[in-house]
Amino acid sequence: MAAAAVSEAWPELELAERERRRELLLTGPGLEQRVRAAGGRLPPRLFTLPLLHYLEVSGCGSLREPGPGLAQGLPQLHSLVLRRNALGPGLSPELGPLPALRVLDLSGNALEALPPGQGLGPAEPPGLPQLQSLNLSGNRLRELPADLARCAPRLQTLNLTGNRLDAFPAALFRPGALPLLSELAAADNCLRELSPEIAHLASLKTLDLSNNQLSEIPAELADCPKLKDINFRGNRLRDKRLEKMVSGCQTRSILEYLRAGGRGGGRGRGKAEGPDREEARRKRRERRKRECGEPEEAWVDEASRLLLRVLHVAENPAPLTVTVSPGVGDVRPFIVGAVVRGMDLQPGNALKRFLSSQTKLHEDLCEKRTAATIATHDLRAIRGPLLYAARPPQDLRIVPLGRREAKAKDLVRQLQLEAEEHRKQKRRQNVSGLHRYLHLLDGKEHYPCLVDANGDVISFPPITNSEKTKIKKTTCDLFLEVTSAASLQICKDIMDALILKMAEINKYTLENKDEGSLSDHEVDAIPGQVSDPRATTGAEQAGSAPLVVEQVRVVDEEGHLKVVYPSKTDLDLAAAHVTVLR
């Protein structure tokens, strides 16, 4: 009788168990009452789904703690999203160990502290050994766990915005503690001091400490070898010249000022001590390279390099812009776009390699589209500007790849029926193709979509693109989009990987044009793709010219900039065989 009551209260769990699902989303108006009835915790039955890779429970004001059994019951979890709930003041019991977790989003809760036993997981051995992205923004944290770096040693992105922190733990900046950390955001806190030891973050690219209570910026910050974007606005610095610089100057100028000896005290010692100070810093940088195990960049012959040229918005007479509607905030809030010109997809198997690389990125970096979704379009078939919005399923119409025009509601229903038929025929639970991603829409009252200036829906993430903008062998100029419900940085990282792969494919194509064309059978085997052997591409005419990556601006409805890609911190590729011309 009790089991029947649980089944009735949590039909999503029964469905996930029956279909052996790897992703589960719990949200919507009925969730809060059910969680309250479960004592402010997640139901224990949830932790009997060991196949789960992605779990999201969001927007539930009655969820105060995850509940015991999560770590033991979900050992394969890759992404855990528990945002906009009421978790706090700690996590009891602690979350880890979760050996496979890569993305953890605890933003928008009521967390005040994460002490041992009520935090993220143990430090020895590391409770979150594979964690790459941690979002703790919008909580009430007054301090970070001292052992955070030992608990999550492979952390790449750390978002602490909107808490009550007055200092970072010293262990966070010890040599080699977080060798992969590239983005640190701690805006809107109460930070009073930034340790010079931050220079030990050898991979740091982006640092946002705006709107804190800092009075000085340590000169050692300039020793971060990869730092390209800093934000210290809203701090009352003692060095008034530096305070003025952080409000209007580029990162490079600020770092040069610090490197020359400019300090928060503004005593102007840089000119007198410049050469000695610079030599000391050079030696420190070399020592930190050894301490952090940073590899020496291999020498690569210029002829074998991949070239990418970035065209900035200011240089582009007709830049493409994406306007974001507020409605996507609760559905799939993050989007990054880019235009790539000069691809040659006509010779040999270039088109097939390009589509296969997308599939591989969706499986790996995108974690089967749970972390992010890629969409690629023929730029000639798009009329800008574009609108990224959320619409009710019955109001969203699209011509999906290889199908007739349909409402999103009908398309999803048709795909569900096809998936069920597939299971019956194959006598197994796993499904393939678009059917694998239907669960990502569970509980959504609105679906995200990208619309061009003609009013045509060209993308319905994470399900499909439009037949109108499909990539053909004759396509040479492309619009790329990456959307995510997890984070903006994930969008950027995946876009970096996609563009790098495109450069590799294009170079291979140009060097192996005698490989032979795809047969009609091979082309037909790629859904939604049509070849035209008579057409010539712009890339053919350009010879071995680099791919051109045009910046795309994403703005809100008032025209305020949300993100531009690629910015000066994007496409900062560690690969020695790539040269980016800016």
Automatic annotation (TrEMBL):
Question: Where in the sequence is the signal peptide annotated?
Answer: none
UniProt cross-references to InterPro entries, sorted A to Z: B3/B4_tRNA-bd, Leu-rich_rpt, Leu-rich_rpt_typical-subtyp, LRR_dom_sf, Phe-tRNA-ligase_IIc_bsu, Phe-tRNA_synthase-like_B3/B4
Per its UniProt entry, which superkingdom is the organism in? Eukaryota
- Biased-composition ranges for Basic and acidic residues? 270-281
Coiled coil, from the record: 405-432
Q: Write down the SMART domains for this protein, in alphabetical order.
A: B3_4, LRR_BAC, LRR_TYP
* Keywords from the named record: Coiled coil, Leucine-rich repeat, Phosphoprotein, Repeat
For the biological process aspect of GO, one term held by this record is:
phenylalanyl-tRNA aminoacylation
Locate the region Disordered: 260-295, 518-543
Q: List, for all copies, the residue spans of the domain called B3/B4 tRNA-binding.
A: 331-507
Give one GO molecular function term: phenylalanine-tRNA ligase activity
Q: Which PROSITE patterns match?
A: LRR (PS51450)
Q: What is this protein called?
A: Leucine-rich repeat-containing protein 47
Organism, scientific name: Eschrichtius robustus
